[in-house]
Amino acid sequence: MQCLACLWKQHRSYWRNPYYNVVRFFFTTVSSLMFGSLYWKLGSKTGTLQDLFNTMGAMYAATLFIGISNSSSVMPVVGIERTVYYRERAAGMYSALPYAFAQTIIEIPYVLIQTILYTFVVYSMLGFIWTAGKFFWFLFLMFFSFLYFSYYGMMCVALTPSHHFAAVIASACYGLWNLFSGFLIPRTSIPIWWRWFCWATPVSWTLYGLITSQLGDLDDQEVEIPEQGQKLVSKFITEYFGYHQSFLSIVCVMHVVFVILFAFVFGICMKYINFQRR
Known about the structure:
This protein is mainly α. The chain has helices at about 1-15, 20-40, 50-90, 95-105, 105-125, 130-160, 165-180, 195-200, 200-215, 235-240, 250-270, and strands at about 220-225, 230. It is built from eleven helices and two strands, in the order αααααααααββαα. A two-stranded antiparallel ribbon has the order 1-2. Helix 2 packs parallel to helix 5, helix 3 crosses helix 9 (about 200-215) and helix 9 (about 200-215) packs antiparallel against helix 11 (about 250-270). Its main location: membrane.
């Protein structure tokens, strides 16, 4: 009953906060049109190495841009809600875990709508291959990446005294996620003693899934590589990035794991860490 009551409370709170949600959807729509026009039809070009890297760069940028925006924009909302939560918990209205559960669950429908808006525009304007499998892989990976970014922002707020401090902590991790995503420096080129950090970086799993699902099965298309000649796109991706089509199921599981992990840490922190000043 507490979970349902908290969920209804969060629903009403989000519904009465048009600034957060309307701006989120507006920003997503504008960003998708911007990315679509900037990388117009690049998804269908794989003839040269530059074309291939442009396509991968479009996926990489599309993930980070909205993801970091989600993480940053949710922080003030969670910070304000936490102040109300301290007061209502002290009054015995509900306990910490039902509140945390409701706070995480209420994000899901809004992130889903955001993902659908973003995916339809970006996927069509970038010119990726229109098959059900590829499209739904793109939709799935975008949804879970946006969701784990949102939950990561919530977790940072729960771990720190204020959302301002949380933003500073989170920005440091964005830089590390960016560095170890596997795009700027392929995982195969990273020293062996640092590769574990790639596996611990959620963005690297998203990039793995996007590149592999969209390009990893192109066994009938070749890419021109300077000083090496023609090579199959699928073979190049396997050799250069270390991505394998058979690993997609693990990529899927890891996205779910990161979402659950960030939500779980958020709940535990809300229960045991109290920054209230008396």
